[in-house]
Write a structure and sequence with these properties.
Elements: H1 9-16, H2 30-37, E1 39-40, H3 47-51, E2 55-56
Parallel strand pairs: 1-2
Length: 64
Amino acid sequence: MLGLGARGKRFENLQGTPKYAPNMLASEMVSQIDRLALTTGEPPVLDYKQRMGSRHIADKFAPD
């Protein structure tokens, strides 16, 4: 699933660089991707994202 809201970072990035190359991941990675879905490296977490359960993690790719 690809989420693309006008207030998100992905949308902001596409504004400056209109080329997009999606990454297709193996189904075995679903749990890792789900873990990242509700995190952001950019503080502050916007109110509407907090209401959806998002939280700030400075290095979201660091091991737990």
